[in-house]
Design a protein that fits this description.
The protein is mainly alpha-helical. 79% of the residues lie in helices and 0% in strands. The protein has one domain (54-195): Tetracycline Repressor, domain 2 (Orthogonal Bundle).
C-alpha cells in the first residue's frame, strides 16, 4: 500500500465521519480506527484536525470543479441544458455519498479562517458560473436577472438540503436517495422555468 493511498483513505474516512457526525464530534482517534491505522499515522499526514479538515475541503472542492467542468463540456450548447447538466452533476456525488451533504452543513460551522480558505477555493468556480449566466442573459438566451442571485439561489437550495432536513421533512420530503433525486428534479424544473428566455 502506498503512502498516497493511505493519505487518500484518511481523507475519505474524515469526509464521511465529518459529514455524518460533525467535525467537532469526530476525533483523530476515530478517523485512525476507521482507516485501520494509528493516530500517529494520521498526524504524519495532517499535523492537526484543522489541517485534516483543510485537506478534506481541498479534496471536495477539487472534485467539484472536475465534475462541473465535465458536465459543462458534455452538455449541449443550450444554456438551459448546461444549467441542467451542472445541477445533475452536483447532485450525483451527493446521492452516492450522503456524507457530502453533511459536510456542506459543517461548512457553516467553520472557523473564519477555514471559511475564507474554502471561499478562495470555490471563488473561481462561482465567478465562472456568474459570468456564464450574465453572458447568456445579455445574449437573450436566458431570462434577464441578477446572475449572482441566481447562483446564490442554487447554492442556498443545496445548502438547505444539508442544513435544514427537519424543515424539509415537515413538508413531506424524505431524506433518502429517492427524496434527494426528487428534490434535484424539482430544482432542475424550477431553474428551467425561471430562466427560460
Amino acid at each position: 500500500m502506498t503512502d498516497r493511498t493511505t493519505r487518500e483513505r484518511i481523507l475519505d474516512a474524515a469526509l464521511d465521519l465529518f459529514g455524518v457526525r460533525g467535525v467537532v464530534a469526530v476525533s483523530l482517534d476515530e478517523i485512525a480506527r476507521a482507516v485501520g491505522v494509528r493516530k500517529q499515522t494520521v498526524l504524519y499526514w495532517f499535523d492537526s484536525k484543522e489541517a485534516l479538515l483543510d485537506g478534506v475541503l481541498d479534496k471536495v472542492a477539487a472534485e467539484l470543479v472536475i465534475v462541473i467542468d465535465a458536465a459543462v463540456r458534455s452538455a449541449p450548447d443550450d444554456p438551459l441544458d448546461r444549467i441542467d447538466a451542472v445541477v445533475r452533476a452536483v447532485f450525483r456525488p451527493a446521492v452516492r455519498r450522503p456524507g457530502l451533504l453533511g459536510l456542506v452543513r459543517e461548512v457553516s460551522r467553520l472557523s473564519q479562517g477555514q471559511a475564507d480558505r474554502l471561499a478562495e477555493r470555490i471563488a473561481p468556480l462561482i465567478d465562472r458560473a456568474v459570468a456564464y449566466l450574465g453572458d447568456e442573459m445579455a445574449a437573450g438566451r436566458l431570462r434577464a436577472g441578477d446572475p449572482r442571485l441566481i447562483a446564490a439561489l442554487g447554492y442556498a437550495t443545496i445548502t438547505g438540503i444539508a442544513t435544514e432536513p427537519e424543515v424539509l421533512r415537515a413538508v413531506g420530503w424524505t431524506a433518502d436517495t429517492a427524496g434527494l433525486r426528487s428534490l434535484r428534479d424539482e430544482l432542475r424544473a424550477f431553474l428551467r422555468a425561471a430562466l427560460q428566455a
